[in-house]
Amino acid sequence: MAIFLTEQSRVIVQGMTGSEGQKHTSRMLAAGTNIVGGVTPGKGGQSVDFAKRSIPVYGSCADAVKATDADVSVVFVPPRFTLGAVTEAVDAGVPLVVVITEGVPVQDTAAFFAYAQAAGTRVIGPNCPGIITPGESNAGIIPADIAGPGRIGLVSKSGTLTYQMMYELRDFGFSTAIGIGGDPIIGTTHIDALQAFQNDPDTDAIVMIGEIGGDAEERAAAFIKANVTKPVVGYVAGFTAPEGKTMGHAGAIVSGSSGTAAAKQEALEAAGVRVGKTPTETADLMRAVLAVEEVGV
Q1: Which of 98, 193, 196, 246 is most buried, by CB atoms within 10 Å?
Q2: What are the structural domains, with CATH classification, of the chain?
Q3: Which of 165, 249, 273, 282 is catalytic?
């Protein structure tokens, strides 16, 4: 069991013929992802050879879906083409679109997210590392050899902190790890992932990683308090960030008393979430939770 992505997922890669698309398609294939095609306008009918197989290229998402029954698209296209790429995937009926591209204009993200939402398509990202169900499928750029399958669910705004937390808890493994991205507007939120993990019978506990800026973590805390019965541990990046300066992600900016790490920590702890001061301490908190779960205390 997993959330959003399984070994049955049929994945296409928009921008597969580009350098980043080819590099990460190779890595996804090595992780066992069922990649059934690539999409590059004007290159339909070609193919790209990888280590163990050749992947066909289609000129449009509509052609790719018609030929392969794809149900996931991973987007590796430049920012100026992302709106068109996501819109094309939505029009083709792809139910899950993972947008790796960073630097997408906020107005473009707002446009394609609203379009996707109206059509019932889930968007992950943009500016995210994607999603991995270890041992089954990997849609994005998360290194597949950090950790194997297990019963922890992970949702994170940060790509690098996703990788670190997977490494810290590699002895336990993950049901699914999802990097939702740190832009001001994103498709899938902490709350979306928390709800899915709550409903997943093979996820026993959840790690949630947030960062300064906005109020997503405060809203997630309220959701956890009202709806999540599984144990949640958290980490909020940015305790030392200076006010008014964007840190890393476009959405990671503190404005006055709004969006501070301390405020987010307070909200999470009030909802019963144990919050670590560092990623390593957060992993230790999860180990303690799992030890308690194991003995049934």
Answers
A1: 98
A2: 11-124 (3.40.50.720), 146-295 (3.40.50.261)
A3: 249
